[in-house]
């Protein structure tokens, strides 16, 4: 009996639908002998019948019938495979017989596949761009084109080129509606589902989880229509995993529970273990370790009871090891990992399990070193595994940790140097190469005598140049570089004149600003008004041409011409910006995606009227500590402090804050939001845990009432003003806290809003108010009556509300107002931050908070984006978003409030007031009333003083005792610079 037939029989036993079985049987890339397969199935049926396993025997009998039914198609597939291999190429599923006459479009698609299979990916991509301009001969060609593009995209993704892979797939829009034409074809439906599934993965590779989820939803719709349960299970798993990867663990929990229910409802229970493992991982991420352990232990029970085979056993053992490690039970964790290694060696997917075990070996304990010895034994009998770069890399990294554990640091460093040389020889992906550099640098930094510290610094410094600024590996390299500069900077040869602390600050600022600057570089922002009109027109035309070149130019020109044209446009745009720089240097800096440096920040803060009153604080959050940069203008002092508060404590604080204040309605039993009149009934220990962070800063900032704070990671979601100081009082008693996003954001936003001398003074400025509830809000009136709040101050108010609060009406109001107040919901776009904004009315109807579920045209008609505001050159100095996102992360409306606020600041809004959690209507109204009254009564005071006074008034003189609790007075935060309007 052949191994191929035996393996195929085992796979057929695991399928969950007739459609999936048929796909396996007619796959031209999986040749088999039909007679031998039927004989294997007959033997299986006899064994099941003899063992009393009647259901399994019936399943095998039905599979044998399917094999017989599909025998002609299978034999044609084998013949097709023979012919394609004779021609020297394997062809993607669904592609035509080489002897079949081809249309002009399909001839081009065949050429794309041949180039891709030959490893000529750039030429294949250029050919795909050309082919996009050639129409299909008939709609029936669409599946074949989609198969070709999916094949190329898969190879590009394997090469780390996800953006190019998405471009390749754009030429074959395989919409669910198009599949209906071929609904009789299981192969076509399977291809369509896989097409959208791959596009979802590609979007997620680029950080766009929202669009990834849209693709998975399309794939699921196809699977449901085709009755393909296996494809549906895969796409639902991807959808739940997407929520997990983007940090939405509660949504992931709900998704994986649905996957488990589907898997348990099927006759074949083979997918239940994987579903249980996924669910356990999410439960562990939510801190529910006992429930997670129960899931993984159930997997082991299923494997033992049913004598199953597969990688899920090893995954469960590794997960149990991780849970033990989280409890600091290292010996138990290593025992689980050792069991996982045994299980993974005996599974078909030995590679994945081996990589997981290798990545967990720290080399610091005898048990870890013993387990690494077991890995070496396995590799000695399977040396071909080291031909896989990922296995080789992780093995050598683990070996280096092993040597470090033995105190043989020089040998470990030499081992990593050889690994780096091999990576260069193999021309591996830059991010994988950077992982080796990181490990080598850490190894070199172990030298207590400092003899190899310079080598570590040089390696890290040069590795950054090969990576994009928004890469996660770039961030890791930067963090380590900052640590090296802070700890050893005085002994290093640095690349320029900047002192170590200043160079460390500039590196940190470059990384934290990189992602946003990339998005803004070619966005339609209005230049400052004093830029010559001809330069403004030239820039607008070139930006429009570049946008067109990114899509349509490549469809009608050859790839080399396409690249050359884009480079030419880039050179012309650079020339325009050189001529524009004397008129608007900060605007040009943004267009060139250049972050601010400490020298720029120093000049800017010196110019503030309150320079002697402010301190700029920028945080860099690390695994075990936070690095705080504190700059005092006037004193010209930059200090760097390392604080032993790690990311885990910050993440726990954010999770506890959200649970304490906003409740946990999705947990069982559900936890209601905090009762506004009894806030002290829930502890706020998560704020007390941050006191060491504040205590470390106080010596540097004690005499500065204003703190301009650039948070990092989870720090951006925490109310630092409410953190207790060592004497028991909260920070807001001593200092006003204004969140600035980053130095780059602050400097650009300020320069963008430069006014002429004819600017309208605050006391004479018009005030605009708009309010619109969502369709899902139970009492719309409560969100649409804030005009009276502004009118009580004595200001003349222009207002629109309800279904009259449309995009055009709000833009008109913002365009002529220094102060604006919006009561509405918000939306943050993770892929395009300037497409974030607020939800408004359209066509006589209120918006829906469920924006991702709406058609694109409907979504755009209800969404006023930061990009829209940027185009208007708004004069708004203060924008209050009273109900925007109704908290930091509104699960319905997209969340990530601080990202949306940052987008608005870049778009030209001077300052933004927004909520960090679901704020109480009464206390937030009182705080804003005090704030606006202070602005009206003290026109010479800066915004930050007026806002700070309103906060302290709520702390010291609450209308009701409960309003002195941070839940009430710290919910609203001031973002921007807080300068005088």
For the biggest sheet, the summary is: 11 strands, mixed
Strand content: 5-15%
Supply Rg: 31 Å
Strand order of the largest sheet: 3-2-1-4-5-14-13-12-8-6-7
What general outline do the C-alpha atoms trace?
globular
Query: Low-confidence stretches at least 5 residues in length (pLDDT < 50)?
Result: 80-98, 551-560, 755-760, 885-898
Q: In which range does the helix fraction lie?
A: 55-70%
| Overall average pLDDT | 79
Q: CA-to-CA gap between the ends?
A: 84 Å
Number of strands: 14
Report the structural category: alpha/beta
Number of helices: 43
Task: Report on the architecture of this protein.
The structure is a single chain. Mean pLDDT is 79; it is low at 80-98, 551-560, 755-760 and 885-898. The protein has an 11-stranded mixed beta sheet with strand order 3-2-1-4-5-14-13-12-8-6-7, with helices on both faces. A 3-stranded antiparallel beta sheet has the order 9-10-11. The chain has 981 residues and is α/β, with parallel strands linked by helices. The protein is built from 43 helices and 14 strands.
Architecture blueprint of SSEs:
Layout: H1 3-14, H2 18-25, H3 34-50, H4 54-69, H5 71-86, H6 104-117, H7 121-131, H8 142-158, H9 162-169, H10 176-179, H11 186-205, H12 209-226, H13 229-245, H14 249-264, H15 272-285, H16 289-306, H17 312-326, H18 330-345, H19 350-359, H20 366-381, H21 389-405, H22 409-426, H23 430-444, H24 453-463, H25 472-488, H26 500-520, H27 533-556, H28 559-580, H29 585-591, H30 598-606, E1 614-621, E2 626-632, E3 637-643, H31 647-662, H32 685-688, H33 691-701, E4 706-710, H34 731-734, E5 736-739, H35 743-752, E6 767-771, H36 787-791, E7 797-801, H37 807-815, E8 819-823, E9 826-827, E10 837-839, H38 856-862, E11 863-865, H39 866-871, E12 878-881, H40 897-906, E13 911-915, H41 921-937, H42 943-956, H43 966-969, E14 972-975
Parallel strand pairs: 1-4, 4-5, 5-14, 6-7, 6-8, 8-12, 12-13
Antiparallel strand pairs: 1-2, 2-3, 9-10, 10-11, 13-14
